[in-house]
Write a structure and sequence with these properties.
The chain contains 1 helix and 8 strands. By secondary structure, it is mainly beta. Strands 6-5-4-7-8 form a 5-stranded antiparallel sheet. The chain has a 3-stranded antiparallel sheet with strand order 2-1-3. A hairpin with a 5-residue loop joins strand 1 and strand 2. The longest helix is centred in the N-terminal third of the chain and has 8 residues. The protein starts with 17 loop residues before the first helix and ends with a strand. It binds zinc ion. Zinc ion binds next to loops.
Length: 136
């Protein structure tokens, strides 16, 4: 993070995902879990695909994971970024994957299973989005 005003677009917040973005603003990564069978549901959805329960809970996760795959999209030029960000699929210790950005590592030095940890990047409008960095 730096003192320069962020240019990254703010997240689009819908009712189902408001808890996620509110937690991000507090520096936490919270996801939805089925309150019946305890399976994670990411992204959130109205019904559990495992047991069909509509009961849900929002739980904080470790923020530790490993890189599953990665890419640097160059065309079209991403809006809100000076340089195209590295887009990665990160597998969290809890067993599900999320699409995110990788910071703090050169593209050519990324490897499959690179251990990463949660960080946050500021957006326009004072919000935060979860990103990942190599684990220290
Ligand atoms: Zn379930």
């Amino acid at each position: 993070m730096n003192d320069i005003a962020p240019t990254r677009l703010k997240p689009i917040v819908t009712l189902d995902i408001k808890f996620f973005w509110d937690a991000c603003d507090k520096g936490e990564l919270k996801v939805e879990r089925c309150a019946q069978c305890q399976q994670f549901r990411f992204p959130p959805r109205p019904m559990c695909p495992h047991c069909h329960s509509t009961k849900r809970e929002h739980v904080a996760v470790s923020g530790r994971g490993k890189v599953y795959s990665w890419i640097r999209p160059v065309h079209p030029k991403p809006v809100g970024f000076d340089e195209p960000p590295i887009v990665a699929l990160v597998e969290l210790e809890e067993g599900f994957r999320l699409v995110t950005n990788l910071y703090g590592v050169e593209f050519g030095k990324i490897t499959r299973d690179l251990p990463v940890e949660l960080s946050f990047d500021k957006t326009v409008g004072g919000r935060q989005v979860p990103v990942f960095r190599p684990r220290r």
